[in-house]
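Hi W.,

Here's what went into the run:
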Amino acid sequence: MRGQPGGDIAFVTQSGAVGSVILDWMAMKGYRVSKFISYGNATDLDESDFIEYLANDKKTNVICLYIEGAKDGRRFYETLKKVSRKKPVIILKAGTTEQGVSAVSSHTGSLAGSTEIFNTVIKQGGAIKASNIEDIFDFARTLSMQPVPRGDRVQIITNGGGFGVLMTDWVIKKKLRLAKPDKSMIKKMKRQFPGYNVIGNPTDLTGDARAEGYRKALEFFLNDKSSDMIAVITLFQTPLLTAEIVDVIAEASRKTSKPIIVISAGGRYTEVLKKSLEEFSIPTFSYPERAANALRALHDYSRNLQK
Amino acid sequence: MRGQPGGDIAFVTQSGAVGSVILDWMAMKGYRVSKFISYGNATDLDESDFIEYLANDKKTNVICLYIEGAKDGRRFYETLKKVSRKKPVIILKAGTTEQGVSAVSSHTGSLAGSTEIFNTVIKQGGAIKASNIEDIFDFARTLSMQPVPRGDRVQIITNGGGFGVLMTDWVIKKKLRLAKPDKSMIKKMKRQFPGYNVIGNPTDLTGDARAEGYRKALEFFLNDKSSDMIAVITLFQTPLLTAEIVDVIAEASRKTSKPIIVISAGGRYTEVLKKSLEEFSIPTFSYPERAANALRALHDYSRNLQK
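Here's what came out:
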């Protein structure tokens, strides 16, 4: 599934406005769209037709859907069940409150239906629920760039203690587990890192971390069987962390079947390095919450496939 | 409280990394910081000292805090209670899960304490709780730019139906109310807008909306007593909506005591217009969820002041 950024994400939307925003955003971020379908009131073809078509489209690896209501609930469910075994289907449903349902009726006129039933259809159908537009972006690029994990155990590597704490909180809040790295490995690692580094989970390489420290840490954690996914926090506000980190992470990602994502936030320099990482199919996030959320989506999809 | 963008936001942080990220971000977005305090392990002065100092700092209108644990809980509570009546205090607490607390102990070594107690201290102390780093950014700029609302009723004006539905959902999910515009006013408005526009809440001016349509709609809703806050959705993917909208919204904002925020998402053109809006002290958001969240913070602060 890992590939070039974009070129493999399809969007099906019942709202022209939501659709154009997504197209604009993809263009700005340099992602390419495989297919784009804006179908409004669905007088002839509906969402199930499009999902079925995209299931067989070789250029599409991930299918995203903005929907206000399904035309034929039973068929929609059967379609999801069949297609989501082949490729991830990400769904944002609008009209999930009584007032939202009423707004839907003056927009596309769809029967927005019960939120509970819709959530069950998404879950039982093996699709991935997006709660907002950001989720669509984050889930689509993560699922199109990274392999699915074997389990839910996350290892965190950071050069900023506060970000490490925040990511730890979000891993737990998103109902993933914090990996417990092997004790004998930790012992071995401690001998190779400065005494003021915190080796564990999170592993905090602290403010003077260089790319080389990340390389060593990644090598240990990628070979350690106690984790399933790696969250790397790289804050470029520290003077010793150079652009070399991009190659270090890209190289690590090539050698492993564990998904790797990067969290990094700051100004323009940070944005440039994040863009480079994405060109190597490493999804990047500004905030721990959004990163943990994307790892959760990867794990959800992996579990659906195992069923 | 309304003023120039930035120049009036102070940051107090226990994490150097979180602090540098915030500084970088503020610089990139063109906000100015009044004071910036990174205090780490707090061996002499602590968070309460800094909050007290900033309470009397004339250049600071909003105080933001990243904290891993309070040194003296009782004093912290008393300080918040006193200061938050003068200016908003926004707090992001890290270490809110068992695993996060343990990560805190290897970072600043603070006693992270019980999350429940901390949440109560924030609430009873009249401060505003940020759940993540994005919340800090969004709450700080919204509270520094816009007046506080009289109540919790939100009026939505949009040119994209889907975004209107999503915003409606989020207003409800964030436990605000959807304003119910006066019926006789709606009747009057309907005569002045094309028949295919949806006049109500949301009011959908549809894809051919021009700045002039927004001007008229804003005039009605700003004078209508049934709403307390206005959320304006401006999607620039439609050909007829020009940069004139910036002046229309800035002008409306000058004439009213109701807070106005803007939701707009897309590519570079959208980003330029959003930046112009922010220069007129109109906070802008890319996504309905984040906008509703910021309105919720405005409302929370308003309620604290009324207590």
